[in-house]
Give the backbone structure.
Amino acid sequence: MNTKKALSMTSKNTKIDALFINGLTHDGRGVGHFEGKAIFVDGAVPDDTVSANIIKHHDSFDDAVCLNIETPSPDRTTPFCPVYDTCGGCQLQHLSLDAQRHWKNKNFITQLTQAVEAQHSQEEAPIIGEGQHYRRRVRLSLVISKKDKVARLGFKQKSSTEVVDIEHCPILTESLNQTIQANKPALLETASRALKEISLVEADQGVFGLPNTPTSTQPTYTLNTQPPLTLSFPETGFIQVNQALNEKMVTQALNWLDLQPSHNVLDLFCGVGNFTLPMAQQTQKVVGIEGEQNLVDTANHNAQNNQLDNVTFYKGDLFDEITPKPWFKKQRYDRILLDPGRQGAFNACKQLGKLKAQIIVYVSCNAATLIRDIKELEKQGYRLSKAGMIDMFPHTTHTEVMVQLTRTHKALKKPKSRSIFKM
């Protein structure tokens, strides 16, 4: 596209007119180019034409803010949340849901293709779901503002410690919204200048986490496998926030593992058994490893409660030496699943080749650490064979991704391929 760009400079900034936006960064900024340099524009989306003000210069790119949208993108939308402009919870409501998913997936696949051997890989269609009322866990901030002395319950503002007061969040499940509305007056009365965090979660039995509301009931969630599984979890512990997408993710992971009844499977970073128990329904034996004893105890309870006696859980520090562990030493596994946190699983991946599993499925919320770990697995004879994005967090810049790696018995020694995925 040929556009005439006008450039004006002051001692503090640079203004660019008629800047065409042709990409999106991982953190939700539009990407344009001026005189051969990438310009990351806060508030712009792909196919916008904008005027922008550069606020910081870097060697290979510049940071800018959008001053005016000269020609809006056909994918630009009106945010559905009344506090979107100030709230820091969502970053992409001004971009259509289809376009969000396109760019999240494109950025992930591009990163992956440029970094690892992808010659024989298959790009899978993104897993998607509803764009609103999907989030079953929320962390609210409660504080009396130091600026105006007003008590507020809500979310942190963008780039600020101030709190945006909310009455209803269209991202949260209706049960969470109803609970917040019903308890907000009482919660505001307990506010102080010291910031408090209130974590609420919707479980099968209702909403848990309200202060001063003790309960003897263990929260559970259901996985609609065959037969369905009921999993207990600690009230303050981790579960996937998007229930519908979690079920689709588990289904895809099991399909990519290509499980057989005779298989022995290893599940690393297993939590309360979100993947472990569904795998145990289909295979001979599953071993789950988790670093926190309370999660191991809960996972064991879940196995017993669901009458699965072919699964064993161990407490194990997966960031420490793992080769001497009884679940690793002299063991063989047909399949391995990893689902670490943002820090990834680099230490574990350095050793996994010794187990000689034919297929590894890796689920990640951080593409950078995933790619780092794939490179380590390549050294042990694994190749990327499938990859896909899971839109677990619509309207935010966050995403979940999944890859399948297959053992080829030959370590990668030559430079990585730059070939694109097969469609």
